[in-house]
Amino acid sequence: MAPSYNQTFPILVLGAGPGGLALGAALQQRGVPFLIIEQGPEVGHSWRRMPSRLKLLSPWKANWIRPGDASRFTAHHETTREEFACYLRDFAAERRLPVRTNVQVKAVRCDAKEGFIVQTSVSELRAHCVVNATGCFSAPWTPEIPGANASPLLRLHTADFGDAESLRRRIQRDERPVLIVGKRLSAGQAMIELVEAGFQVALSCRGPVEFGPGPLVWWWFFRLHPWLEARELRRRGAQARGFTPKMPGGKARQLVERGLVQIFPPIERFNDSSVVFSDGRSLEPSGVIFATGFRRALRHLAPLGLRLNTETGSPELTGFESSEASGLFFLGLDGQRNFQSRFIRGIRQDAPLLAAKLAQRLAEPVNRSAGLPTRREPGDARSRSSTHHMTSLRRIQYYASVPRTWLQLTLHNSWGILNVLDIIWLRPMRGGLIDESHPFCTGVDPATGKSIWHSNVIFRTPPRVTWAEGHRAPDSDDEIFTKVGGHLCHQVGMAASSADHPGGRPAPMPPGILYLHGGVHYNGGWLLFNDFAEAIEHFSDRRFAAEFRRFVREQRREPLTLFRDRDYDRDEFARFVCFMRTTFPWFSNSNGPKKFVLWGNPSPYPAVNTITGNWIRDCRLLQSELGRRAAPRPPIPAGQYFQDGPWQGERSTTLWPENLLAWATERRIHLRGEQENLYFVDKRKLKAGLRFGPEPIPSPWRRLARKLGF
Questions:
Q1: pLDDT tens across 177-227, in order?
Q2: Using CB atoms within 10 A of its CB, is residue 400 exposed (0-12), middle (13-18) or buried (19+)?
Q3: 8-139+295-373 architecture in CATH?
Q4: What tens digit of pLDDT does each residue of 365-399 get?
Q5: 8-139+295-373 and 154-211+246-290 share one CATH topology?
Q6: Model pTM?
Q7: Distance of alpha carbon 192 from alpha carbon 186, whole angstroms
Q8: CATH 3.50.50.60 applies to domain 154-211+246-290
Q9: For residue 373, what are the β-bridge partners?
Q10: DSSP string for residues in 150-166
């Protein structure tokens, strides 16, 4: 039965191009209900608008959506625009995908009670999740040039060009040259077609024209480049880059080099029926065709207030999901998993992954009053049942790995303890090694003048829309990073020199311990989750845990995991920390706004610092002038880690070894009595008023010398 417009859809897909149809087929295979809406009169309408002689840049083997369609053409077939548009139409019809055409999306809003409200040219639609698969081809881009709107000249984008004969019917005088703006592939294709049709052609572009391979080399490259891309992805992963399309190197090169097509610099302005170029020359063309590419079709998402990357124009994402609007997903954007994600060959790999993520989201308990997934409360039956996803083999592997991981943890932590004792006792670091303007004290990147914490976020989940009763809504993510980063800056600042305290201020911790906070907050990689259950769901995914290890191994930085939920259960926090100690061979510490948990300290938001030992280098560098300048490191490159989501772990709660470790650690701290949870400092002395001054703690040798009277 065709869905009506007045119901709420579980999933609403915007766009019936390759992305929307690929996702629809993947959702249909999983039995997940959805609706696809398309602004054009037919499926794949943006492809119908393309120049009639356009051919896809890659062979058919790189452009089918589902494996069953691979035999429609031969593997190396050069697919035309018409052939691909017909393929999309048949793809939707054969699978009976629920597509509604002539439905233009005007705006998408988010309501805490009703979920997403999508205003269209037909009516308002509501959805639990919205997938933006609008691509780029529906949003051709032309530069704004002074005088263009007042000029009577015909101006077209290549998306509306059609073919040479349709252009001839639209222009008044074809004896004058047609001016093409651009210098890449589409400019070259339009130039060749127009010259072959008898038009005079001129080209306006920035910088020299770069040509691609000639016909013979292109014949080989066309067939080999899918293999070359796969090889590059295996070698470099998410850092791999594709091949930049250039102007065809055969006939287009000959036309330019022989002077049959005149080259002009960029257009400076339109002057009635002529154009004036940046070098002062002018031309009176019969029309102007802009081969200036496309931009992401995201205008309808403006009411959501998404922040877009100034360089790429893309929204901030965590996997396929918006980092700012939970339930809003994207498909077909450049760099979502790798550079292929914006191409059909990447979309067909991403669509099943996104479908799995959406199916998982819909399977979560839903708050019927809000139409949105609810928060799993710690310890409830629904959370406990998630452990049943672990197979018997995985349970055996887990229990077998626990003794080994705990042994590695003990050895690694012992090495860390020795290094802490070294900087506070054996070879103690004095206060005042850095001043209050040092980046470790300010959190400011000297290269940009802005705080570095936001640039070092390597992963975060979308903020929860609704919170359970008794749980305060958190601050914005930016405020959370700022508050926690500022808190750690304050710790380092107590050991820094100032006008009133050249050797640092009296503090409850020795200078060496205060310094190590600098490398943690300034150089560290930040992760952000809603609560502990959500974090376990991610870290119990072996691919996610492997990415976490890869970050530590490649970057040699300390990871810092934060949580938005300030109204947490202290026992659950302790169990999560011990889950981290059982998953990774590194000590993890629990800090938060409530009474201390295990060996933790105060923090504005719950924060787990996983101590990998990379702080040692950052701390040691502060002992020399050159090292003090080298200690603050540049920001972590964006998009380098956690790009292969969605992530789906085996459980969302801890298991008995982790619970046992939490109980044993709590008992050990309890037996310390009034010394409580500070390992390197006697809390009884702090309560009595002890503060560490600018002078370092006397080393054992100095203490012995004093006793002997030296």
A1: 999 998 888 888 888 888 988 899 999 998 888 887 777 776 777 777 677
A2: exposed
A3: 3-Layer(bba) Sandwich (3.50)
A4: 444 333 333 333 333 333 333 333 566 778 888 99
A5: yes
A6: 0.53
A7: 10
A8: yes
A9: 366
A10: T--SEEEEGGGT--HHH
